[in-house]
Amino acid sequence: MTEATAMSDAAEKPAKPHLPDAQIVQSVKHWTDRLFSFRVARPKTLRFRSGEFVMIGLLGETGKPLLRAYSIASPSWDEELEFYSIKVPDGPLTSRLQHIQPGDEIILRPKPVGTLVVDALLPGKRLWFLATGTGLAPFASLMRDPEVYEKFDQVIMMHTCRQVAELEYGRQLVEGLRDDPLIGEIVGEKLRYYPTTTREEFSHMGRVTDNLASGKVFTDLGLPKMNPEEDRAMVCGSLAFNVDVKAILEGFGLREGANSDPKEFVVEKAFVGDGI
Ligand SMILES: Cc1cc2nc3c(=O)[nH]c(=O)nc-3n(C[C@H](O)[C@H](O)[C@H](O)COP(=O)(O)OP(=O)(O)OC[C@H]3O[C@@H](n4cnc5c(N)ncnc54)[C@H](O)[C@@H]3O)c2cc1C
Ligand SMILES: NC(=O)c1ccc[n+]([C@@H]2O[C@H](COP(=O)([O-])OP(=O)(O)OC[C@H]3O[C@@H](n4cnc5c(N)ncnc54)[C@H](OP(=O)(O)O)[C@@H]3O)[C@@H](O)[C@H]2O)c1
Question: Which of 2, 3, 194, 236 has its CA 20 to 30 A from that of 271?
Fold first, then answer.
């Protein structure tokens, strides 16, 4: 093949089609038949606060982007972006997204927003992360952010799922944190992890709400009952979970805050709807 032919071949080959705001998938890990995580390249210009979410998706059948809100599960210092996702069997996005492979493109709208940010809370002694299911995702980001440990003496991650296997992503993340060369030392003994299940035998069991209301978690961790002087909380789960946790936190005297009005706790939905 002459040089001229080679050049014309290259010119004729259509350029790889690029989605709008396309990012390349770097790795994918499946945790259960309902849960997977994946990492994508981070746009150089994307700045976000740990705990925020963005819109991500794929091109829909009509050629229009099919986008959904996703918490960024990686911390703001990470060079890649990580996401932790449900697989809804007939979900418009996740029925397809669950099949992505390294090298594939996804759409990522680079406009991070959200209430689960440290700035939305008043200073305090302890920070509680309260999550069910994929509601862990924003805390997967925050747990890896040094700012959290600079601002709080203790950080408590309560995560509840129906089954043990659904806790595995969070468990490995916490285990890995303690030995992490970048932030292991900062995290040290400050991070307390309190995973529970509700429908399978496990060392610790029960709903977040029940373990807070009964005081079991305070006894188990040797901590005082939650109070508005010392404790701050961030909540992320189903609407029913958020409503029930909010009532309990308010019962402890904590008030709901927002970015524009920091108080003692903040809440964000992990998804819209009643569950699959
Ligand atoms: C602020 C915000 C942040 C979010 N962050 C995440 C995230 O980090 N990871 C993630 O997996 N999803 C997250 N979601 C949900 C996400 O936006 C989509 O709903 C999800 O990806 C399913 O999309 P779908 O098109 O397949 O199905 P949809 O049509 O969006 O959902 C179908 C049904 O599945 C159920 N469902 C949707 N998402 C979940 C879920 N995560 N857990 C349990 N049931 C669910 C609901 O009942 C919903 O009505 C977030 C939602 C919001 C509002
Ligand atoms: N997880 C599974 O194995 C599984 C499998 C197939 C389909 N699904 C479907 O997927 C949907 C989402 O399931 P999911 O397990 O991710 O979420 P989920 O039903 O919200 O449950 C997640 C965890 O949150 C607890 N919880 C639910 N509501 C609560 C509340 N108001 N206050 C405190 N804790 C609460 C649950 O405890 P309880 O167990 O006490 O409710 C469970 O431990 C459900 O509609 C389900 O039918 C789930």
Answer: 194
What dotted CATH number matches 22-113?
2.40.30.10
Q: In ligand 1, which atom is closest to the CA atom of 97?
A: 26
Longest dimension (CA), the chain: 79
- With a CB cutoff of 8 Å and minimum separation 6, the contacts of 3 are none
Tell me how far the alpha carbon of residue 224 lies from the centroid of ligand 1, in angstroms: 35
Angle at 137 between CA 133 and CA 143, to 5 degrees: 120
Cα distances from 146 to residues 1, 151, 155, 191, in angstroms, run 57, 9, 11, 11
The contacts of residue 147 (CB under 8 Å, 6+ apart) are 50, 118
Q: Which residue has the tokens 């992360």?
A: 129
What is the pTM (predicted TM-score) of this model?
A: 0.94
The atom number, within ligand 2, closest to the CA of 161 reads 43
- Identify the residue whose tokens are 């809804």: 88
Provide the token pair at 272: 């819209």
Pocket-forming residues, ligand 1, beta carbon under 6 Å: 53, 68-71, 84-86, 88, 91-95, 133-134, 137, 268-276
Q: What is the pLDDT of residues 76-135, one digit of tens each?
A: 999 999 999 999 999 999 999 999 999 999 999 999 999 999 999 999 999 999 999 999
Mean pLDDT score of the chain: 92
Give the closest residue (by CA) to ligand 1 atom 47: 275
Question: Per-domain residue ranges for the chain?
Answer: 22-113, 118-269
Dist. CA 49 → ligand 1 center (Å)? 21
Centroid of ligand 1 to alpha carbon of 271 (angstroms): 4
Identify which of 31, 84, 132 to mutate to test ligand 2's pocket (most ligand atoms within 8 A of the CB).
132
The span from the CA of 151 to the CA of 149, in Å, is: 5
